[in-house]
Amino acid sequence: MFLHLGNGYVVRNQDIIGIFDEKIFNEKKKELGSGYLKAVKANRKLLDKEKEAGRVLDCLYEVSGEKEKSLVFTDENTYLSPISPRALKGRLNDSLNQCFHRKI
Questions:
Q1: DSSP conformation class of 74
Q2: How far apart are CA 25 and CA 70, in angstroms?
Q3: Element spanning 95, H or E
Q4: What is the pLDDT of residues 20-63, one digit of tens each?
Q5: Whole-number Å distance between alpha carbons of 44 and 51
Q6: Which member of 16, 35, 43, 73 has the lowest number of beta carbons within 10 Å of its beta carbon?
Q7: CA-based end-to-end distance of the chain
Q8: Which domain holds residue 46?
Q9: For the chain, what is the domain count?
Q10: What are the CB-based long-range contacts (under 8 Å, 24+) for 91-99?
Q11: d(C-alpha 65, C-alpha 74), whole Å
Q12: What is the DSSP string of 13-63?
């Protein structure tokens, strides 16, 4: 099965390592605490390394000015998606349920 990430990008369900909210890579509110901000900084560093390696693919629709809501990690690439992590996880669960509940 495949998961649609936006703008025509799809990945195989089995290739997905994780689906994350973009806020854990970009949040800068001091009231969240220093531990959280350190984690955001480390996450940002990981994303910057992925970009430098040319492994980040932008699934955003340029015309609409959308911003990423999710980051989807696979072994080969990191995808910036305009679809919320909750919606992506719901789609993923739906496709897995279809796979396991299919009548043979």
A1: E
A2: 10
A3: helix 85-100
A4: 999 888 877 766 677 878 888 899 999 999 999 999 999 987 76
A5: 10
A6: 35
A7: 17
A8: 2-100
A9: 1
A10: 91/3, 91/4, 92/3, 92/13, 92/16, 92/19, 95/1, 95/2, 95/3, 95/13, 96/1, 96/13, 98/1, 99/1
A11: 25
A12: GGGEEEEEETHHHH---GGG-HHHHHHHHHHHHHHHHHHHTT-EEE---TT
Q: Find the length of the chain.
A: 104
In one-letter notation, the amino acid at residue 62 is: E
Residue type, 46: L
In angstroms, the CA 70 to CA 28 distance is 17
Tokens for 18? 């994780």
